[in-house]
Amino acid sequence: MTDHQQSAPLIEMRDVHKSFGSTAVLKGVSLSVRDGGVVCIIGPSGSGKSTILRCINGLMTIDKGTIRVGSFAVETLKSDKQLVPLRHQVAMVFQQYNLFPHRTVLQNLTMAPVQVLGENPAAVRERALALLAKVRLTGKQHAYPGELSGGQQQRVAIARALAMQPKVILFDEVTAALDPEMVSEVLNVIRDLAREGMTCVLVTHEMRFAQEVADEVFFTDRGVIVEHGPPATIFQNPTDPRLKAFLDKVL
Amino acid sequence: MNAELKLFALGTVGVTLVLAALLVTVYGAETGRVLQALAARTPLLLSGSPDFSRFEGGFAANIVISIWAMAIAAVAGTALGVGMISQSFLIRTPSVLVMNVLRNSPWLVVLYAMLYLLPFEIEAFGSVFSFSPMIKAIIGLALPVTANVAEVFRGGVEAVPTGQWESARSLGYRRLQILRRVVVPQAIQFMTPNLMTTYAMLFIGTSLVVVTGADDVLSVARTVIASDGAHYATAIYLYVLFLFFIFCFPIAILTRWLEQRVRVRQ
């Protein structure tokens, strides 16, 4: 842990602003994530949490500020073509899974590495099967997403993200659309990844999980980061009144 | 499929009976002789030749024209549809404009325009291409249908949830790759029934190509009436109506069936 903390941050956002029309969603967000770090972003809905994730992988362009991911200056990458190398390193998992329904589970995993990264199909297939085993879905490779439960689909989505061999995975409220009994199977997979040293940025409403896996927690409200720190401090000794009020409501 | 099969049988028998009843009403005791005359002219009306030796005119020409026009419109309409959903203002605006001009042009006007816009022949790459009436008819029909196909394409693409675009982009896919690999394969089920309706409309529209001088079923019918006498006109036009119905009705039934299937799957 300690030598991780000394290394340069893998993701660094500085003073990021983003508006949709006249609505300012991010009003000067700064955060950094070290290599191998697990960061959770919590906060009320509409506070800009998901927008932060979409800015990190370039799904949304920003109005002001800088975002650095590894050696990429994200705000300077304009076209989809320029963004391909970044997306190779930063994978994302969505609340609604967003698997490709017309492809089998295995094809969902292998499509992008083969079609986008131009990797060898046989090698990708091998890797995909290993990843399915890792998310405990061996035997489901020929099923279509529509035949799986929500929890299974979300685990396929995580495996699909891993198939790109990314350095970072962004999780956007990945358990929010799941039935309660399926939440833990997905969280277990994420917990394994975090323990293995995968850099993870999670937007989540699962406070207990955030407390358990995160090494840093950011609390956002109305487009700014109000407070951040290790989970113990954030959850046990919050200083900001907005954070206190939020935790009173959700815990 | 069962309900549609029933509808198909009912419709086919029903419409045939209605047309037959009309024929009897008009010709009375003469109906038998008129039917014999129709039978004698059937090869000409269907194939443009008196003995089915060639299939270059008559109803066969309508089929050929509709297939070529649809093929051209499918390719051009897809390209136009891609242009209409482009992120670039410079591509999107002209595409939407072209689509609207084409879609709002009366087909008959476009066909007449073809007579004057297309030269009789052009010389290119050292050889001479001539624009036969048939080719003018195909191009003239393909133009407005291109606009319809482009609209169907756009509608189908928009029916696919935006989350698909987002997750494909986050996997590194670029816009055209997303269309080809992710969105269009899912949109095809929404597009197919609409494309079939478009084709049925186009097929009915092939009756207009008579103005280009193409040798279609209607121009053969007019020739037959001119030679056999105006007395047979009603019978021959009823017969042509019947031909169009028999060709288009199964398409309509199949379209309904596909629509139902898409609805069930969702």
UniProtKB/TrEMBL annotation, chain A:
<keyword id="KW-0472">Membrane</keyword>
<dbReference type="GO" id="GO:0005524">
    <property type="term" value="F:ATP binding"/>
</dbReference>
<keyword id="KW-0067">ATP-binding</keyword>
<dbReference type="GO" id="GO:0015424">
    <property type="term" value="F:ABC-type amino acid transporter activity"/>
</dbReference>
<dbReference type="GO" id="GO:0005886">
    <property type="term" value="C:plasma membrane"/>
</dbReference>
<dbReference type="InterPro" id="IPR050086">
    <property type="entry name" value="MetN_ABC_transporter-like"/>
</dbReference>
<keyword id="KW-0547">Nucleotide-binding</keyword>
<keyword id="KW-1003">Cell membrane</keyword>
<feature type="domain" description="ABC transporter">
    <location>
        <begin position="11"/>
        <end position="247"/>
    </location>
</feature>
<dbReference type="InterPro" id="IPR003593">
    <property type="entry name" value="AAA+_ATPase"/>
</dbReference>
<comment type="similarity">
    <text>Belongs to the ABC transporter superfamily.</text>
</comment>
<keyword id="KW-0813">Transport</keyword>
<keyword id="KW-0029">Amino-acid transport</keyword>
<dbReference type="InterPro" id="IPR003439">
    <property type="entry name" value="ABC_transporter-like_ATP-bd"/>
</dbReference>
<dbReference type="Pfam" id="PF00005">
    <property type="entry name" value="ABC_tran"/>
</dbReference>
<dbReference type="InterPro" id="IPR027417">
    <property type="entry name" value="P-loop_NTPase"/>
</dbReference>
<dbReference type="InterPro" id="IPR017871">
    <property type="entry name" value="ABC_transporter-like_CS"/>
</dbReference>
<protein>
    <submittedName>
        <fullName>Amino acid ABC transporter ATP-binding protein</fullName>
    </submittedName>
</protein>
<dbReference type="InterPro" id="IPR030679">
    <property type="entry name" value="ABC_ATPase_HisP-typ"/>
</dbReference>
<dbReference type="GO" id="GO:0016887">
    <property type="term" value="F:ATP hydrolysis activity"/>
</dbReference>
TrEMBL record, chain B:
<dbReference type="InterPro" id="IPR000515">
    <property type="entry name" value="MetI-like"/>
</dbReference>
<dbReference type="InterPro" id="IPR035906">
    <property type="entry name" value="MetI-like_sf"/>
</dbReference>
<feature type="transmembrane region" description="Helical">
    <location>
        <begin position="97"/>
        <end position="118"/>
    </location>
</feature>
<feature type="transmembrane region" description="Helical">
    <location>
        <begin position="234"/>
        <end position="258"/>
    </location>
</feature>
<dbReference type="InterPro" id="IPR010065">
    <property type="entry name" value="AA_ABC_transptr_permease_3TM"/>
</dbReference>
<feature type="transmembrane region" description="Helical">
    <location>
        <begin position="7"/>
        <end position="29"/>
    </location>
</feature>
<keyword id="KW-1003">Cell membrane</keyword>
<feature type="transmembrane region" description="Helical">
    <location>
        <begin position="59"/>
        <end position="85"/>
    </location>
</feature>
<protein>
    <submittedName>
        <fullName>Amino acid ABC transporter permease</fullName>
    </submittedName>
</protein>
<dbReference type="GO" id="GO:0006865">
    <property type="term" value="P:amino acid transport"/>
</dbReference>
<dbReference type="GO" id="GO:0043190">
    <property type="term" value="C:ATP-binding cassette (ABC) transporter complex"/>
</dbReference>
<comment type="similarity">
    <text>Belongs to the binding-protein-dependent transport system permease family. HisMQ subfamily.</text>
</comment>
<feature type="transmembrane region" description="Helical">
    <location>
        <begin position="195"/>
        <end position="214"/>
    </location>
</feature>
<feature type="transmembrane region" description="Helical">
    <location>
        <begin position="124"/>
        <end position="145"/>
    </location>
</feature>
<keyword id="KW-1133">Transmembrane helix</keyword>
<keyword id="KW-0812">Transmembrane</keyword>
<keyword id="KW-0472">Membrane</keyword>
<dbReference type="GO" id="GO:0022857">
    <property type="term" value="F:transmembrane transporter activity"/>
</dbReference>
<dbReference type="InterPro" id="IPR043429">
    <property type="entry name" value="ArtM/GltK/GlnP/TcyL/YhdX-like"/>
</dbReference>
<keyword id="KW-0029">Amino-acid transport</keyword>
<keyword id="KW-0813">Transport</keyword>
<dbReference type="Pfam" id="PF00528">
    <property type="entry name" value="BPD_transp_1"/>
</dbReference>
